[in-house]
Amino acid sequence: MNSGFFENPTWTYGGGLYHVKANDRLMIDNLMDLTHETCVHANSIGQPEIDEAPCTTMVEGDQVILQRHMTGIQAPPFWQMDMSANGLDPQAQVNRWQICRFIPPTHIMIDVGVALAGQGGFDAAPERKAYSVVVDFITPETETSHWYQWGMARQFKPHDAALTDKIRADQGGIFNEDMEMLQLQQANICQWPDRKLLMPNIYSDGVQSRRIIERLLALENIPVVTA
Description:
Elements: E1 12-20, H1 24-32, H2 37-40, H3 48-52, E2 55-60, E3 63-74, H4 77-85, E4 93-103, E5 107-116, E6 129-142, E7 145-154, H5 161-191, H6 205-219
Antiparallel strand pairs: 1-7, 2-3, 3-4, 4-5, 5-6, 6-7
Helix pairs in contact: 1-6
């Protein structure tokens, strides 16, 4: 994961700020489990291979890292656009990766991208891939709301302002879909407050992230408010 792109001239960044009427923990669940992309973002970044590809979850101290790697697939529309922008054939087979890193209390960085199949994956040469980092800063406001600062830093065509605007607009549309889903989740939780969230995999990335938050809150003697 590259965290020095803000001052690195080979990178560029664009993003925005949303006020989300949902508990911040729901946003963390959403960002740490990208299988929702297949149905929520079917026309942009979603594809069946996300559900089918195995993933690994690791806990390193207070950080949770999820990795998913897909090989020999067709890139979805958003990444086809990025491939074209970087001079790559958008119809070529690719290797795709998603590496989510939760850093408490509410900070998530996600390495995402595609590389030409047979040319590597995350570690492929810059001219053989389209690589970005999704930046997520989440600030709790109330039990049912938070502020969400989002953005995408990319490693290709850093001086192309029109491309930055295009990616920001497309990514904003994707996050609008997330926000609609999260606010509906929160409305259901408020309507049925006695129902508990289903957590079928207690070792999943979202559950592990929640556990870290709860442990840190307990150290500060702050009551845990679940959503």
